[in-house]
Amino acid sequence: MDNLYRLVNLMQLLRDPERGCPWDNRQTFASLVPYTIEEVYEVAAAIDKQDFPLLREELGDLLLQIVFYAQMAREQDLFDLDDVARSISDKLVRRHPNIFEEQAGPGGATWDDIKEAERRAKPGSGTLLDDIPDALPQLLRAWKIQERAASVGFDWQEARPVLSKIAEELTELEEALAAEDAQDRLAEELGDLLFSAVNLGRHLDISAEDALRKSNEKFRRRFRCVEQQMAKQGKSLANCSMEEMEQAWQAAKLE
Question: Considering 72, 130, 136, 247, which has the largest number of Cβ atoms within 10 A of its Cβ?
Answer without folding.
Answer: 72
